[in-house]
Amino acid sequence: KLWFREFYEKHSDIVSEKKPVVAERKRVVVYTEETVTEHFYGEAGLKKTLIDAGIMDPASKRNLHPERVLNRDESPQFIQYCTTKGNNILRRGAAKGKSTVMPDSENRECVTIDVVTGLDGFLYGLHVLISRECITEGCVLDEMNIFDSKIHKLSKLSTFCLLSNNQCGVQTGVSLLNREKMLVDELKQRGVQFPVVETTDNHESRYDEEVMKYCEDNGIAQWSEKSNTSGKFQMLDQVNRQFHVEYIKGAREHIKLRRAQMEAEFNRVVDESEVKLALTDFFIILSRIWFTWSIVMDRITAWRRVGVLPDRLAPELIPRDQFQTEPSQQAVVIAGPQRVEDFPASPEEGRPCSYIYQRHRAEAY
């Protein structure tokens, strides 16, 4: 260790000791320039998909209809739990040399938020997936009345809302099909021309037969990046942290309100650790932050970080801080098929929104 430190000091003009960014190995090995080129300009890449859908002009390579490019992603959110790192650590006074114990109340129930945004910065309706056998009246609060199924074109927001329930509270073929139906209603109310291109990850719910058939019949071309590359190529991955931060802030404010109510009810001092949030509290917090956790510019900036601008593709804008300098043999194995020819033959393989095309693509992966 001493030798390395002396080496860094001696050659401080060319090298320095830095704290590495933690990243999954299976993702890092596919972060290469070859992957970027294939993602945008491959025979099954984003450029070809946009041209086939009539969104990009093949001559000028310009996006003519940014409102027809969408991104979908699911994000889990604990009701009342966050890691005790950095600014999340709550400090208390204690005698010197003595430790202090802080009792805590937490609810690690995880709710899934399904988010859809447009390349023009539009935020589509809220889709919440909860782990419940049924949705009770207790979940339908007065605060949720703000979701009145309207499109606000000026502020680029939708007040549509969908609650889905299943055993695990995650996206399934059934829940995604219902969400796609709501999305079609939103697009029609906005006056968006079809077909649209919906960029997404390789979650198994995308390859549900009913979902793919519905998307084909209604002009939604599902286009997914290669496995383990969503960290660099998926727009919502660049802004999800912002949602979690705003939820934590909202939860802390809600705990203060609940604490004040409990003190008035019990006529005694109530510690914050005694306040435990439930699913109903989650919906109250969510209704308060949903329309403000990000603004239009935040969403357009997130698209920029994955190399997609409202008027063109710009892969040079993708941060290269975790990229491999040389191609990795393992990357080729994980990435799966590299060209359209590598997929099983299909009579409609040239149609990205085709049910048959998507079915064969899923089987190939």
Polypeptide structure, described:
This protein is an alpha/beta fold and 365 residues long. It has 12 helices and 8 strands. The strands form 2 sheets. The chain has a 6-stranded mixed β-sheet with strand order 6-3-2-1-7-8, with helices on both faces. α5 runs parallel beside α6 (209-217) and α8 (240-266) packs across α9 (279-289). Residues 328-336 and 346-350 have low confidence and may be disordered.
| Cα separation of the termini | 44 Å
* Structural class estimated from helices and strands: alpha/beta
H/E series: HHHHEEEEEEHEHEHHHHHH
Could you give the count of β-strands?
Answer: 8
- Would you identify the regions where 5 or more consecutive residues have pLDDT less than 50? 328-336, 346-350
Strand percent estimate: 5-15%
Provide the residue-averaged pLDDT: 82
Strands of the biggest beta sheet: in what spatial order? 6-3-2-1-7-8
**Coarse shape:** globular
Gyration radius, to the nearest Å?
24 Å
Helical percentage? 25-40%
Sheet with the most strands, sense and barrel status? 6 strands, mixed
| Count of discrete alpha- or pi-helical segments spanning 4 or more residues | 12
Task: State the gist of this model.
The protein is of the alpha/beta class and 365 residues long. It is built from twelve helices and eight strands.
